[in-house]
Amino acid sequence: MTTTHSTHDVGIVGAGLAGLAAARALTADGFDVVVLEARDRVGGRTAEHTLSSGEPIDLGAQWIGTNHDRVLDLVEAFDLELWSQYDDGTDQVAVAGEIFEHDERYRALPAESEATLREAFERIETLRKSVPLESPQDAPTAGAWDGTTLETWKRETITTDAACEAFDAFVRAEFTVEPSQISLLSFLSAVDASGGLEAVTDGDGRTEAYRLVGGIHQLSRRLAEDLGDAIRLGEPVRRIDRTGDTVSLVTAEANYTVSDAIVAMSPPLAGRIEYDLPLSGRREALTQRMPMGSVIKCFAVYEEPFWRSDGCSGSVLATDGILSEVADATLPETGRGALVGFVAGADALEWTDRPVAERRDRVLDDLARYFGPRAGDPIEYVDKAWSTTPWSAGGYNASMAPGTMTTCGDALCGPVDRLYWAGAETATEWSGFMEGAVRSGRRVATEIRERHSS
Amino acid sequence: MTTTHSTHDVGIVGAGLAGLAAARALTADGFDVVVLEARDRVGGRTAEHTLSSGEPIDLGAQWIGTNHDRVLDLVEAFDLELWSQYDDGTDQVAVAGEIFEHDERYRALPAESEATLREAFERIETLRKSVPLESPQDAPTAGAWDGTTLETWKRETITTDAACEAFDAFVRAEFTVEPSQISLLSFLSAVDASGGLEAVTDGDGRTEAYRLVGGIHQLSRRLAEDLGDAIRLGEPVRRIDRTGDTVSLVTAEANYTVSDAIVAMSPPLAGRIEYDLPLSGRREALTQRMPMGSVIKCFAVYEEPFWRSDGCSGSVLATDGILSEVADATLPETGRGALVGFVAGADALEWTDRPVAERRDRVLDDLARYFGPRAGDPIEYVDKAWSTTPWSAGGYNASMAPGTMTTCGDALCGPVDRLYWAGAETATEWSGFMEGAVRSGRRVATEIRERHSS
Description:
Keywords (chains A, B): Oxidoreductase
Largest interface: A-B, 52 and 52 residues
Oligomer: homodimer
Largest sheet of chain A: 8 strands, mixed
Family (chains A, B): Belongs to the flavin monoamine oxidase family.
CATH class of the domain at 4-44 and 217-290 and 398-453 in chain A: Alpha Beta
Distance between the termini of chain A: 41 Å
CATH superfamily of the domain at 4-44 and 217-290 and 398-453 in chain A: FAD/NAD(P)-binding domain
Domain Amine oxidase (chains A, B): 17-448
Organism (chains A, B): Natrarchaeobaculum sulfurireducens
CATH architecture of the domain at 4-44 and 217-290 and 398-453 in chain A: 3-Layer(bba) Sandwich
Radius of gyration of chain A: 22 Å
Shape of chain A: globular
Strand content of chain A: 15-25%
Enzyme class (chains A, B): oxidoreductase
């Protein structure tokens, strides 16, 4: 195999939203950019799928929040159409052997459980406001909070089984981890970066406000179209070298020589590249201590959203089956009904490793329990297990393990020589969201622009 | 660059003690073996260094335990000479602003602190005996123990600052992690696999009993000599493919086609290989949730072991500087004095990223505080920061983060199709020791032999 060589101003590793946003900003500034993508498609942790009937669905990221300004800018720039998330009717919370119902999910539990969960949420809001957004490790009691799992905090704070289970489902569905797998500090920081609990729990500034008619993947596709042949698909970068005044990005087929490089990937995947330049001990430790979450995203499609006429919103938070969360995902293009469910955390690992047919049956059992027998008999079922998806190795995001933020968290985004780190996890605002990915791409573009103009 | 092809019975990735032991066992059984090593040397996390005066020292693993039978077998087979660890005289424990002294390290603290530490150790011994060695995740309260950090357990259990600090130093020195970074379950399992606290704390069956005259690296070198040109240095395996009835190990220069493959590396480094065969979701999650520890190993060399005549054993356990532990490392070949110190856990990350000269000064300050001004003025100082050592990315070992063992710990050693996992971490007995590495290599050799004879 022959190796080709080419030279560019900036090389970007990863054509997810972060890498594409960085490429767009740098190209607009006149930089010659090359974007190297391991997959055969752009879009990273967004993933489009076409149903047998032709409608697109999002097997990866799908929701845009009301305050996701950079993403909403792109929606406007590309003349795309938003579709409001359906939320009329009754939410269900299936915990502690019962299914509780209420128009507002977190008010569904019986009084004592509702009270202890509300107090826990209020305490989280108080605590997270003392965590600095840009440097959570500088919070006043950062050491103690980083040495305590969220599980320990939950057991000390929440007094009923039903409320504990609802909290577990909330953590799994929102952050794709078990409460045992993150520290209180990293949880508070994640809530902080998500605009607070109000936003995450469907209140003000809610993060699950809109989908995109035609599918979220259009964002990446349109960004990529504008970049043309600057994007090279199917070219995983194996090694990054530093030679003299340049950086080399080495793939199986080619060497790209660039002035500056952006690694726009999740930290654990960025850690799998071989770096022939001195990274810090903290950076090395961080990429090993910030694993991807675990999630399977499941869709069931029906002739119509029949649960609406039953007064149901389609929203479920649960621990009684394998789905942690369910939401209405009715198809904007045709109005056909769809439910989207998330198997998350430990359940996701267990069910990723089981046969798809068995998983389908189990998910449909869950849906039938919440929405009646019609839900168990969809026209079509499709799911995607992100833990075994190559070049993702998990989803939605990477979270720091306990004892990580205070020991090496500061190595998350600081550039190393001419190497810049982007990706949803590196954003301080909306970390872990598409909005964070786009912001991180713009941030590194600014860092590179400033280095070149100084 | 042209790609060469060759065919073998078994391909082994990694020429540390695990890979070499597997190769030795399989070669003895008549298998044609190839061992692919990324570094330009064999020996993995053992590392030899020659002082300017010509004596060898071990910058990596160095101690052999009294019950490390497989390693002791190799010592005998290669006609190597053991050197007993010096432990006469007074140990020091430098915590809570004072330096306490006693012939037995863990009896040095004042009465109340000694009592609470001893009770904690007794409790650990009781608890760890309920953890099954081969499947810690099946312990009766595994879920709760895996959701609690060792830090939380320590704060609940140990009642004085001095005892807490001594415990911190013990955990850092023995396991190269902060108590915040591992769960109670993974700690109990590690103690269990080390033969219990007696062995780790220098009692019966002690793990730090012997060194090897001439350096521990001789074990790997002699194993490698017997294997001859089956070992290929400087060839990192980038990808492992499964095609038909064979497995391909792909390096930058060559494709090796084999019937069975052994990955004999730490789990996080094994996770950096690209696998073109279906690994489980659990396996993918595990390699992301089992980071390497953090350690800098430091040597100071003197004309003679002057501390001995002062009545000191050379042994220190400390939190008052940056060294967590110090031990006598007097050179068997010449009798010149040497002290070995370990900067471990969070301190190791911080000091890995500082200039070596600054680190040297700081370590020598610590040694002078424990052993007087002569200790601050060595003939030679050398250290090795393992977190930034390529193809190690940390040391001594990988430990599971909280919430890992109960969710994906079962993916640690089970073979996947024709892929076998070896390495010190995969041993059930003496996990994390050289003895565990050798045992793991023999275990996979047996697994492969059995597959071929069935």
